Amino acid sequence: MALYSEKVMDHFNNPRNVGIIEDADGVGEVGNARCGDIMKIYLKIENGIIADVKFKTFGCGSAIASSSMATELIKGKPLSQALELTNKAVAEALDGLPAHKMHCSVLAEEAIRSAIKDYYDKNGIAYDKAQFPEPHGDEHEHFEED
Ligand code: FES
């Protein structure tokens, strides 16, 4: 079996929603200190809906495919739904990632969460802090979970 699914290859070769949103309502950036990869997510939010989303990822193919798929999954969705997106859901939507690449999908989950938190903070919107644990992208535990 090929190491990477066709969907991973497709989203790596033709990533959706690449770019930046100049007047973004929320921006989230996370990194993984171990591999050095960085992911940045920009959100445009209208009436609680993600009207637009773009990303810039300086990272491996799996991180790029994960960013692309994650942005597709949250576009047009309410913030509450985007907050529920897990890295496992992103990996499943890509028809799986190799175990040692699961941490790449974690970056996507954390970057989206961080961008939503940024939006809440900038707009003085109250939220449950428990929903926003500190990103773990720079720790080693995601490697151990793999
Ligand atoms: Fe670091 Fe993929 S190897 S995000």
Jot down its keywords.
single chain, 146 residues, alpha+beta, 3-stranded antiparallel beta sheet, 3 strands, 41% helix, globular, disordered C terminus, binds FE2/S2 (inorganic) cluster
How does this structure look, described?
With 146 residues, the chain is an alpha+beta fold. 41% of the residues lie in helices and 18% in strands. The protein has six helices and three strands. A hairpin with a 4-residue loop joins strand 1 and strand 2. Helix 1 packs across helix 2, helix 2 packs across helix 4 and helix 2 packs across helix 5. The longest helix is centred in the C-terminal third of the chain and has 21 residues. It starts with 5 loop residues before the first helix and ends with a helix. The C terminus is likely disordered. FE2/S2 (inorganic) cluster binds next to helix 2 and helix 5.
Compact description:
41% of the residues lie in helices and 18% in strands. With 146 residues, the protein is of the alpha+beta class.
Extract low-pLDDT stretches. Answer: 138-146
**What small ligands are held by the chains?**
FE2/S2 (inorganic) cluster
Rg for CA atoms: 14 Å
Give the overall form: globular
**Sheet/helix structural class:** alpha+beta
Strand residues, percent:
15-25%
Strand line-up of the largest beta sheet: 1-2-3
Main sheet: strands, sense, barrel: 3 strands, antiparallel
What's the total count of β strands? Answer: 3
Helix content, binned percent: 40-55%
Gap between N and C termini, in Å? 19 Å
Number of helices: 6
Mean pLDDT: 92
Order of helices and strands: HEEEHHHHH
